[in-house]
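WARN retry 2 of 3 for item q-0093 after timeout on previous attempt; input resubmitted unchanged.
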Amino acid sequence: MNKPSTRIGRRLQAGFTLIELVVVIVIIGILAAVAIPSLTGVSDQAQIAKNTATLGALKSAWSSAFAVARAAPSVAAVAAQMSDPTCTVAGTVITCGTAATITTTFTAAADPILTPAGITCTTATLCN
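OK item q-0093 returned
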């Protein structure tokens, strides 16, 4: 004889419980609290690194101009050796960059003989 089934069916879980959601939100909050402070200065550090590289390129450009002229090059000759970023000259000031990027100003020493050590970055906030 068949007895009627008195089995009580379990409900299938259709989502997450409130506790599970709270735990996930807390974990995301902790990760954000750790990650955000380490990422805030990345842009400034990248700009400083770019300017340091440009300064090194200007000093290498001085060496190239010196090799071509076999004498201490002028500020214009040093800037002419630069291809990326392009640089312009006004007196003893070399400005590198384009309108689409932040331009950086470098100053060549006003000594009669320009040396690589005489080329310095003068945009203080971007060169430290």
